[in-house]
Amino acid sequence: MPKITFIAFDGAKSTVDVPPGTTLMRAATDNRVNGIDGDCGGNCACATCHVYVDPSWADRLGVRTAPEEDMLNLVADLRDTSRLACQITLDDTLDGLVVALPESQH
Amino acid sequence: MNASPRTESSAPIDARARIAALPLDQLNPADPERFFDDTIGYVFERLRREDPVHRSHSPVPGIDSYWSVTRYQDIMQVETHHDVYSSDGGITLLDFPPGDEQHLPMFIAMDPPKHDEQRKAVSPIVAPANLNNWRDLIRERTCRVLDSLPRNETFDWVDKVSIELTTHMLATLFDFPTEDRRLLPHWSDMATANKLLNPDAPEPEVRMAELRKMLEYFTRLWNERVNAPPRTDLISMLAHGPATRNMGPQEYMGNLVLLIVGGNDTTRNSMTGGLLALHDNPDEMAKLRANPALMESMVSEIIRWQTPLAYMRRTALADTELAGKHIRKGDKLAMWYLSGNRDETAIPDANRFIIDRARPRQHLSFGFGIHRCVGNRLAELQLKILWEEILKRFEVIEIKGEPTRVRSAFVHGFSELPVCIP
């Protein structure tokens, strides 16, 4: 089971274990990680699961989808490392992934 | 909040039977009368079951034929495909003739990239850092309004609470002179008034004269702000923002109307609708009093339950298919949020008001996709503070009669609700 760590805007860390196949958004909402709301239920339609991913994981995460780009374009605190957690499906190659949450989600 | 004079009459049951007996092709959800007499739910209940993507014809010139999208997932499909379903044709079903003076350009009715640029010019005002600035101010005003309410006499909740609080908020966001704040809902009503849809609406000349006064007033504010250093109010942000500082007068007006209607007709009606919902569901009220930690999920549930904007319109840019129906280029579609929010296949027990449901934020009231409500967190904050302060003060707010509903298929709300606080 991949182990994932979320770092909230205030620095608080939450580490969760999730079954492979879970999205990064669900990994947070199913474990009540604060700062990931996932209002649209994973339809890439609300941008409330915005996370920053360390560039060292970029190869394993793939690139942003077109709808993801459209939604990220509207967030307040976009960075090169921004992703929407609902568009990332977790598997064992992502075990140990650490993501940080933006100021707008705290 | 029990013991009320509101009684279940047999009228709604008759209405349900009458609507069930109509031929499908006569179901026209955009008929404002269905909203005024609150029978629209029966129309949607039937459409979701029998014809979820439904073609109908309105007798109103300028609306004509349109599709009704009534299920949650189909609405989501339209929301998330803005490349096919455009906002550029307007967000309400009524079309104005080209060049009509009544047409006001606003970013909600634009496609990318212009939409994105203009939206980003105003979205910082409701960014988290600013929400924290608003919090104390909202609480102070809410307390003042609640403390000044009459006791032991019947008054109109819509006027004295819902309109009062939302206009104060808007005046604050615009840094608009507080003493003139009631001009804001007045102009909002004028901007959305339409004789074709509502016989009680003002004549078009009266409407345009009022909107010209609005433009004059706001032009004065613009000129003040544009010649001063940038500040954090919306007008200053528009006047200094690279994407908005060169807007023409019509576009400035359009975006003002968008922000006024967006911040006024919506939260206002959730403030009234929430009171009614809690009155009609005393067990939920008891749950809230026993566990105030439910406040946030209750606020989301109120917003779902009320769905203050019943729909948003899109226009198909190409031939496409939706739930097995062939949609043609140029067709108009209404995404009926009010119906999608009652869709039992997407939301468990969707037709019950439950303040502690599992995923309270998964509702359509703010829309989804790139046009999702920019002020959603501010709206939630206002409602949360209102209910926190109500709970501190009042053991009961009695509903003294039936609410009067707005005669509109777009703004789903109330014009009057008599209440009494003992």
Defining key terms:
heterodimer; A: 106 residues; alpha+beta; Ubiquitin-like (UB roll); five-stranded mixed sheet; 3 helices; 16% helix; 19% strand; globular; B: 422 residues; Cytochrome p450; three-stranded antiparallel sheet; 15 helices; disordered N terminus
Quick rundown:
The complex is a heterodimer of chains A (106) and B (422). Chain A has three helices and five strands.
Could you characterize what this model shows?
- The complex is a heterodimer of chains A (106) and B (422).
- Chain A contains 3 helices and 5 strands.
- Chain A is α+β, with helices and mostly antiparallel strands and 106 residues long.
- Chain A has a single domain, classed as Beta-grasp domain (Ubiquitin-like (UB roll)).
- In chain A, strands 2-1-5-3-4 form a 5-stranded mixed sheet.
- The longest helix of chain A is centred in the middle third of the chain and has 7 residues, at 66-72.
- With 422 residues, chain B is α+β, with helices and mostly antiparallel strands.
- Chain B has one domain: Cytochrome P450 (Cytochrome p450, Orthogonal Bundle).
- In chain B, the strands form 4 sheets. Chain B has a 5-stranded mixed sheet with strand order 1-2-8-5-3. In chain B, strands 4-12-9 form a 3-stranded antiparallel sheet.
- In chain B, strand 1 (53-57) and strand 2 form a beta hairpin.
- The longest helix of chain B has 32 residues, at 249-280.
- Chain B is globular.
- Classes of the chains: A alpha+beta (106), B alpha+beta (422).
- At the A-B interface, helix 3 of A face helix 5 of B.
